[in-house]
Amino acid sequence: MSYEKVKEYFDQHGLGDRLTVQDQISDTVQHAAEAIGCEPERIAKTLSFKLKDSPILIVTAGDARVNSSKFKTMFHQKPVMIPGDEVEEAIGHAPGGVCPFAVKDNVNIYLDISLKRFTDVHAAAGSLQATIHLTLDELEKHSHMKDWVDVCKNWQPE
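Above: the chain sequence. Below: its structure as C-alpha cells.
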C-alpha cells in the first residue's frame, strides 16, 4: 500500500517514471546501493524518530550516522528511534521502505546537510524493493521538508 501511495504521488508530479522496483530487497543502505549500482553514500537514508510525542523523519546520506549531541542541540532531546513495530503506524511506511514521500500529515521531515555534497540521490519509495532517483532540489521539494539540519557525523572528508 505504501508503494502505491508514493507512486500515485510521483505520477501526479510527472516523476513516476523515476521509480524503480528492484529484483532484490533494498532494506539497508548497502543492499540498496548494490541493487541500484551506486555508492552507498548516495542513498538517501530515512530514519524515524519520536520527537516529544510526534514522529519525525530525518533523511541523511547513506554514510552518515546520527550524532546524539548534535541531535540534542537541534531538537532539545536525545534521539529516540521509533520502534520497528510502531514505524508503519506512526509514519505510513514499513521499515525498509520508509521514505519522506506520501507520509502521514503529522510527520515533520528534515534533511541533513550530509546530503548537500551530492547533486542527486536515491531514496526508498515505500517498499523494500522500490527506489526513486531524484536531484537534491527534487528531494527537497517532494519531501515537503521542514528544514535542513546538521545532526550527523562520519560523513565529512578527513
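The first helix runs from residue 2 to 12.
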